[in-house]
């Protein structure tokens, strides 16, 4: 995952560093000319430098397009070995510049470890190849003394140790940073999931609190809250406001005759009919047991009477289960109207409830309206 995350940056940095190294390596042709003049050795050096620079630039292009040292480690290792070979070949061609080349080897070794992005093992083996090859060439072609060889070997060993430890520490720090970042992202994802889960639970709790479990209508408390807001708005806009109390006739006998399961089914059917018959602006809730309450904003007495009659008719026309075919389903509806600005929701419900019981005493299956303290059927 770490290598995949740095894949793009490694490609770019590898290309840039190889181009830089190639330019530096090629620029030393000027020094070769001052030291060797126009000679066979100079032409050999120029040819070697051109080949090394050309190969490095070609590999920089290839790495930029298809490089990935996690999958093609050999492709990223190849430029290091080419550059190392070029530096080693300078010794037999310019043996008198050995001590100048020592500085180049040290710089190249540190570049292998720290400048050109690569795997630690790749950088280590390329650096060892450069150091050993340079040391062998120095002994064979520069004919250095054993003491100088030992000093040179110690210098190259120290350079490799420093470069290896520096890259190892850098890699470790980068991987730890990536691991911490990855862990933080995981924790953020878990946190977001936890927040989403909590919101889902809150929504479910809100649904439980706001909805009646059986009918799906507003619960009593949620209805009161919404109806109160509608009533306040009707007062401000000086619009008529009506309220229904609906009671299922002879509901106890339904439960006693066919059982509570059938009674619950009847309530759900009546609730569905009422909800479908009302406007989107109207609010309906289950008040308790077999009673429903409806708030109708911007509804005149005449319109309220029409709506109530339609509800009563639709309930009577409900298709029932086969075993309940002998049942004549009906509801009684009490209507209360908000006449004055002083009227509150509780008083409206009380008036509608009282009107409802007048209708029940008078035979049920009817709509009764309360006008200024009087009931009209």
Descriptive report:
By secondary structure, the chain is α+β, with helices and mostly antiparallel strands. The protein has 2 domains: 2-184, no CATH class; 220-376, Alpha-Beta Plaits, CATH 3.30.70.270. Helices cover 70% and strands 10% of the residues. The chain is built from 13 helices and 6 strands. The protein has helices spanning 2-5, 7-27, 29-36, 40-66, 73-93, 98-115, 120-142, 146-210, 220-237, 251-258, 260-277, 301-316, 345-361; strands at 241-248, 283-288, 291-297, 331-337, 367-371, 374-376. It has a 6-stranded mixed β-sheet. A hairpin with a 2-residue loop joins β2 and β3. α6 (98-115) runs parallel beside α8. The longest helix is centred in the middle third of the chain and has 65 residues, at 146-210. The model has no long low-confidence stretch (mean pLDDT 89).
């Amino acid at each position: 995952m770490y290598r995949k995350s740095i894949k793009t940056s490694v490609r770019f940095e590898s290309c840039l560093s190889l181009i830089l190294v190639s330019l530096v390596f090629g620029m030393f042709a000027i020094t070769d000319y001052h030291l060797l003049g126009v000679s066979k050795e100079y032409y050999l050096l120029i040819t070697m430098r051109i080949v090394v620079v050309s190969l490095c630039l070609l590999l920089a292009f290839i790495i930029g397009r298809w490089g990935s040292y996690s999958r093609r480690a050999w492709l990223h290792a190849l430029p290091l070995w080419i550059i190392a070979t070029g530096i080693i070949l300078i010794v037999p061609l310019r043996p008198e510049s050995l001590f100048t080349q020592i500085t180049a080897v040290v710089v190249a070794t540190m570049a292998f470890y720290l400048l050109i992005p690569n795997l630690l093992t790749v950088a280590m083996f390329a650096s060892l190849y450069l150091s050993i090859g340079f040391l062998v060439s120095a002994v064979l072609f520069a004919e250095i003394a054993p003491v100088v060889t030992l000093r040179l070997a110690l210098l190259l060993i120290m350079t490799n140790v420093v470069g290896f430890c520096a890259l190892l520490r850098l890699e470790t720090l980068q991987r730890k940073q990536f691991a911490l970042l990855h862990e933080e992202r995981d924790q953020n994802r878990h946190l977001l999931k936890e927040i989403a889960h909590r919101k889902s639970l809150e929504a479910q709790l809100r649904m439980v609190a706001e909805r009646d479990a059986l009918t799906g209508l507003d619960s009593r408390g949620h209805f009161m809250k919404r109806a109160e807001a509608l009533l306040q708005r009707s007062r401000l806009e000086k619009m008529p406001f009506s309220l229904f109390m609906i009671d299922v006739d002879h509901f106890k006998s339904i439960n006693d005759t066919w059982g509570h399961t059938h009674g619950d089914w009847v309530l759900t059917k009546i609730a569905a009919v009422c909800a479908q018959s009302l406007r989107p602006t109207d609010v309906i809730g289950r008040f308790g047991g077999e009673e429903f309450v409806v708030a109708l904003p911007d509804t005149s007495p005449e319109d309220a009477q029409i709506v109530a009659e339609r509800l009563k008719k639709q309930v009577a026309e409900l298709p029932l289960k086969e075993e309940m075919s002998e049942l004549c389903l009906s509801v009684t509806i009490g209507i209360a109207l908000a006449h004055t600005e002083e009227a509150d929701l509780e008083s409206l419900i009380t008036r509608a409830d009282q009107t409802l019981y007048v209708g029940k005493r008078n035979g049920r299956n009817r709509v009764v309206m309360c006008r200024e303290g009087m009931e009209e059927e």
